[in-house]
Specification:
The protein contains four helices and nine strands. It is an alpha/beta fold. Strands 1-6-5-4-3-2-7-8-9 form a nine-stranded parallel sheet, covered by helices on one side. Strand 7 (137-141), helix 3 and strand 8 (201-204) form a beta-alpha-beta unit. It is globular.
């Protein structure tokens, strides 16, 4: 499989949107960002119609090989997008030879220029990718790190019959998700410093997000 490093500096000076799967994504109209660099994380691909078109500015990223056991995995494989997965997926490489692969970088306070990506979860990976691709503004959508009741994903508002289904028991518990949210906070601070060193700005369009390190902006103001 090819390394993700072929993407380094590919989108110099362009605007990027990193799209998580938090509940705040539910009501967003994503059609205005069709011509921007878009990095979809895990199940957020369900918000896009990527079965046709040109894949040059579309990316899908995951650290978690368990996504293979979700009903939306077929949408990932058939999508017109560049797909990146972590090297821990090694035993599945023969199934997805067209995917790009990355290795995880060490969690350090000062990120260095190395051909690796952050890995605590897939959103930090996607932010790191956008930085390394040279995007000068990075906007986060659906990156909430909170629960609405017990809901944590936008698609949980959909009718049951339209929601993606796990094909085996792989659902992360409330406690597990909260732990990931906490672990990510340190990484976001490091990524913000890394971006600033390259004169790149990161903004969070989830106004009630529990992530405080990134400046918050209204999505509607960005795309109008």
């Amino acid at each position: 499989m090819r390394s993700y490093n072929i993407l380094i500096n590919k989108h110099q000076g362009r605007r990027a949107f990193v799209v998580g799967a938090g509940t705040s994504l539910f009501e967003l109209d994503l059609s205005p960002i069709i011509n921007d660099v878009v990095i979809s994380v895990n199940s957020s691909i369900l918000k896009f119609d990527w079965q046709d078109g040109i894949s040059d500015n579309r990316y899908w990223v995951s650290n978690d090989s368990a996504v293979r056991y979700w009903s939306y995995w077929k949408d990932v494989k058939s999508s017109m997008a560049t797909k990146l997965i972590r090297d821990s997926w090694e035993k599945y490489f023969n199934e997805i030879p067209e995917f790009l692969v990355f290795s995880p970088r060490k969690l350090e306070s000062n990120l260095q220029d190395e051909e690796k990506l952050c890995f605590t979860s897939s959103v930090p990976t996607a932010i790191d990718l956008a930085i390394q691709m040279g995007c000068n503004e990075i906007f986060l959508l659906g990156v909430d790190h909170y629960f609405v009741g017990r809901l944590s994903h936008f698609w949980q508002y959909w009718p049951k019959e339209k929601q993606p289904k796990p094909l085996r028991t792989i659902l992360a518990t409330y406690s597990m998700q909260n732990n990931i949210f906490k672990l990510n906070q340190h990484v976001y601070s490091a990524l913000n410093e890394y971006a600033k060193s390259k004169h790149i700005n990161i903004y969070n369009c989830s106004l009630h997000s529990r992530i405080s390190v990134f400046e918050k902006v209204k999505y509607e103001d960005i795309v109008k």
